[in-house]
Amino acid sequence: MSMERLDLTRDCRAVRIPMGDVVGLAAGTEVYVMQSLGGSFTVQAPSYGGLFRIAGMDADALGKEIPEEARRLAAGEGSIEELVDAALRTCYDPEIPVNIVDLGLVYDTRINDLPEGGVRVDIKMTLTATGCGMGGAIAGDAEDKLRSIPGVTDATVRVVWDPPWTPHMISEEGRRTLGIA
User: Of the candidates 124, 113, 123, which has an alpha carbon nearest to the alpha carbon of residue 153?
Assistant: First the structure.
């Protein structure tokens, strides 16, 4: 795997993987871009001791352009249902190059108007294995991306285990990406 070495050009917010806690990475920090999928970046920051996810809207801290996926979501282009689906399709397990929708991990999506305005999005999803340590980070990433959609005032992503996930739940697109079509 080829990793790109960069120094952060400014302070930026990042999510520690797999814990899911938010940290600030300082300008000048040496990072290695491990993956760029779904409009966000997974980086290794040796001086901070681990892996972190940097949102696409903070791409400039890496000296990069904001990915198109992140730009479209921030602009709110489309219906709320389309934006929710698009946001979930930008969420990845850092070890699997297929989004959570095409992996078949999203079981239920509910979008409800709130009396005070805006909408609430509730998602039920699962993981490929019960022992996956990334559950909190993936759910947190999905919540962050859902909350960034204009008009979404609250979002909850809950990890469930029923029904158990199987590889048969992977979409045709996901199968092609994984080479198992």
Answer: 113
Which two tokens mark 169?
């739940």
> What are the pLDDT digits (tens) for 110-129?
999 999 999 999 999 999 98
CATH number at residue 25: 2.30.30.40
Range(s) of the domain holding residue 118? 76-178
Q: What is the DSSP string of the chain?
A: ---EEEE-SS-EEEEEETT--EEEEPTT-EEEEEEEETTEEEEEEGGGTEEEEE-GGGGGGGT-PPPHHHHHHHHT-S-HHHHHHHHHTT-B-TT-SSBTTTTT-EEEEEEEE-TTSSEEEEEEE--SSTT-TTHHHHHHHHHHHHHTSTTEEEEEEEE--SSPP-GGGS-HHHHHHHT--
Same domain, 170 and 101: yes
Write down the pTM of the prediction. 0.79
